[in-house]
Amino acid sequence: MLEADALAVRSLRGTADDPSAVRAITVRFSGPTILSEYFQRDMAVTGWDITELRTEGDSAVISMEWLETSNDEALRGLSSRLRTIADRYGVVYEGWSLPAVIPKE
């Protein structure tokens, strides 16, 4: 897991978050290959919901959502998958964010 991801997890664990609750995790990538049809198609086909796509000159930024729990195993797997996407497509993985889910009493 990337250090930034580990810091986010430690912060999340400091709340009353329920790590078994499924929630939308937002991820962000940037780079010129995001503009290619195959990147966007591959992300949609593999279950990512593209929530934002904006161009910045010859490059682009994309935000996508994935439904997942926030337990340590799921987040380690997600972090690994995000690094694989970045390597495979030549994009920059900028990180993820997710809402804390506080159990109702």
Description:
The chain has 105 residues and is an alpha+beta fold. The protein has one domain: Alpha-Beta Plaits (2-Layer Sandwich). It is 36% helix and 30% strand. It has helices at residues 3-13, 37-45, 72-89, and strands spanning 23-30, 49-56, 59-68, 92-97. It has a 4-stranded antiparallel beta sheet. A hairpin with a 2-residue loop joins strand 2 (49-56) and strand 3. The chain is elongated, with a radius of gyration of 14 Å.
Computed CA radius of gyration, to the nearest angstrom: 14 Å
Classified in CATH, the superfamily is RraB-like
Average pLDDT taken over every residue:
88
Q: What is the end-to-end distance?
A: 32 Å
**What is the name of the CATH class?**
Alpha Beta
